[in-house]
Records
---
Amino acid sequence: MIVRLVLHPPETRTRRNALGNVIVNSLRDTEIRRKLAFTVLLLFVYRLGSFVPLPGVNVAGVQSAQSQLGGSNIFGLLNLFSGGGLSRVSLFALGIGPYITASIVIQLLGAVTPGMIKLRKEGEIGEARIVQYVRYLTVALAAVQSIGYVFLFRSTQTPGAAPVFERFDAPHVVLIVISLTAGTVLLMWIGELITRRGIGNGISLLIMAGILAGLPRGLERWWTSPDAIFKVMMPFIALAVVASIVFIQTGERRVPVQYARRVVGGRISQGGRTFLPLRLNMAGVIPVIFAATLMAFPPTAGQYVHAGWAKSLSSFFNPNGWPFVLGESLLIVAFTFLYTAVTFNPLDQADSLREHGGFIPGVRPGRPTAAFLDRLLARLTLPGGVYLALVAALPTVLIAQTHATFLFGGTSLLIVIGVTLETVRGLEAQLTMRSYAAFLKPPGERLAPPIAA
């Protein structure tokens, strides 16, 4: 069996699918332009809220605590996804992290819990209940996480330095916890609004906006770097990495599917030939986030646990050392297999094909189809996991070799490029839908002028 990657095949790629034409055509359409403006406005509100301080927080104390927590790997990872709001102890200090964690937990439970599996098969009603469970779990996780952050910042206070919190008593702690939890709920609402009334996935766009907030600082570090070779080579390295990520992210194996001609409710359903797309990276960036979080525990434990074994473990898993890189790479590959198995069930896909009269040419319907998809998925997941491990490890290896600071890590690049591709696909879908609607309506009622080729 040959794994075949397809990147924008010539038969499906047209000039209108180019990024420049998509943007120009989107700006010409009134409704899409309104959706884009709505999305940008809500992203601006998100960035503004990340600078709003919490009530009872001392700015001087926050700066002192940040200097101590800056070397923490977990703190740096969480601060990255909050767009810097955590380091400023702002209203959006938690970011959208609790919602992401709740979504992953509910998704994993949906694959192993009989009650959740039954809900997933109930259609829109079941999906609505699952969304409600995600929201409830988000509030609970945000409350617990905010309590942990309050005591974490409290523990970083040094004698003689300005306190992080002006008054540390029960009423003020409750007020801060409620404010942090409300900030996460507000971000969850903003993300859902963007998804419904804007362009693209709102939660993904919020994460990308938080990551891109660090772009000016990264550009400044690159421009002021004393290493001339690094300054010259960095743009070429970045372009090569971005091009490779785009190539892999859009790569897919197209499994041909044939639908038989049948009679449904007195109507004849014409058969046809289509394909089942299996992406090379079906797990997305989730395995990288899981692996980075687990590997950040040993170095962080060495900073806060005053014991010999903790110091030895921290020095062994130095973020710039080979043990850390190898451990993270193995965890990424393992989590890629695990998360792909959770999100894609070959047996369900085979049953769905058989119910709709579809089959893969040369493969019997039912369990043989499920076994075929399982083998194919295993052969796709291994190179996909290796690809994620290479992208995540590349910045660490380059930093160890050049001792320079890069603009983004592997996780950040994967998120930014993945969300960008997803948003562009959303714009293309909107343009296609508007084009068909314009052709179907009478000439005097067309929605928009013809889209330029």
---
Amino acid sequence: MAVKAVLKIGNPFLRKIADSVETIDQTLRDGVVQDMLDTMAAENGAGIAAPQIGISLRIVIFGIETNPRYPDAEPVPLTILINPKIQLLTTETESLWEGCLSVPEYRGLVPRCKRIHYSGFNEMGEPISVEAEGFHARVVLHEVDHLDGILFPERIEDPSQFGMLKELEDAGIIPKVATKK
């Protein structure tokens, strides 16, 4: 349908807990879901959550084959996940640099669980149940955080490991990445 404006850090809407989806139907698919897909593609996102486009619903979309913002990330299948539930499968974490469409031009070193199980429903109302690890697990956890009003800077343990993308790249702390198509 349309590319929507992505809400940015500081917008109080991003701090709200999103509402459960009560009805999965064609209207949801043609409206919110399509807008999320269009916006994620336009912004080169690895994922997006409905609250990021101003919709208080528990819907996340994620997936990449290749992405200039995450050049070293392994492929993640395109998934539309409605009313997600997360189960951590290990206490082992891994810290990697994250960015976010709602926190543009910044990156932070974020610890995340290495292996998870997620479940919910796809856009057709069919159940989803997946075990994920690595970048796949990270992107799911990042997007589901949005549904609970959490942005990635809150997950950073060491504030010195947060900064503007260009400055981090110029200092050689992270590799240079493309931010737009």
---
Amino acid sequence: MAEEALENLTKEEDVLAEEAQETEVVELPHNIQRLQNKQARLNQEISVYQAQIAEIAEKLETAQLAFQQCVVLMQVEEAQSEQA
């Protein structure tokens, strides 16, 4: 019985060794060029959106500065009218 268990263990080790030696085959997608073209288009689209976001952010900053300037001018005008 011990010999049989030892023989089974040896067989299992042999199977594991064979499996370890087998190399894994990885298949690439069939249309790799199509995927690369799509990725390039998406990257270009992202660049366009980033430029639009930067432009909008600049306009927002300008509008906020103009608003703050208006607030200051109104406060100055209010203070002058109270003194008069």
